[in-house]
Structure prediction request, 398 residues.
Amino acid sequence: MEYFPAALEKLVEQFARLPGIGGKSAQRLAFHVLSLSEEDAKEFADAILDAKRTVTCCPICRNLTDGGVCSICASNKRDASVICVVADPRDVVAIERAREFSGRYHVLHGVISPMNHVGPDDLEIKPLVERVSRGGVEEVIMATNPDTEGEATAMYIARLLRPFGVRVTRLAYGIPVGGHLEFADDATLMRALEGRRDI
Amino acid sequence: MEYFPAALEKLVEQFARLPGIGGKSAQRLAFHVLSLSEEDAKEFADAILDAKRTVTCCPICRNLTDGGVCSICASNKRDASVICVVADPRDVVAIERAREFSGRYHVLHGVISPMNHVGPDDLEIKPLVERVSRGGVEEVIMATNPDTEGEATAMYIARLLRPFGVRVTRLAYGIPVGGHLEFADDATLMRALEGRRDI
Prediction:
């Protein structure tokens, strides 16, 4: 049974396809769009098309960019001898927010995950190896997530980069700042003990 | 600080304006759009524009329609002598789902709410009074929500319709089917006792 006009039903369907949006939320969002002014609705639709059309990957680091080389790769203030490898463009934002890292990035756009049929060839690993092979890189920091897949991806890439003689490092594991020992899981505590440092 | 390409930031902003969508969710949705194929993104954008362009209000009952008179007002199987007045097009869907009502509807598109600066003139009350004044209507069922504003709106309209001599009724209050007496609030229990019926 269909109670809403077809165009509205279609919009509800489109919203319902988005991740984390259920049927009721999709309906609420579609009604919100109807309540927008003509210009606001057009602006929303244009934002979707513009993002899809203009956002591309940086030819060097594969991070998202408006076209051409990204601002980090283009900046001569960023140390080109250190590359931080992350799985996702959002991870670049997270690391930039910490204001600690002054090197460059490489975005893999995923991690190796046999369960989800993602192999090394589905990721931006080849461009990374080529970057390192061209020389000038001294350290590659593997900053994939500390889960099984992120770990496996880091190990896989570390092995690939071994012939080039660059230093390959991994983010430190340990108790998160502001966390409680009481609530830390066993694996984290073990790693925190393993990685203990002199004061 | 801006880390994402401008077009992506703009899309995140657009999503963040939607009701119930926070910053993190907006980011997730925007990234999902980037992962769509060119055609799927276009389909999404078109759905927004189409819904906004083609969905209008039925000239008779003010319910949403694809244009022209809505299917319920156009159907001669629906009893034109009974009008069910609801606040929102979604309420029409809810009542239709119950498959109990065979009359027609009138959608107010809101309720009188001085707190939100919504007065009677901001609602579709005048078209309802005109419908009733043209005759042929025997009963008007006030099916606004059972809260203060819904109640006040129902009372306001009932008073407006009194001169036309139609029967104005209100949905029954009581314990919801499948509910528990234990969890019913005092007001509901009071109304359920007041409205008790012979078995």
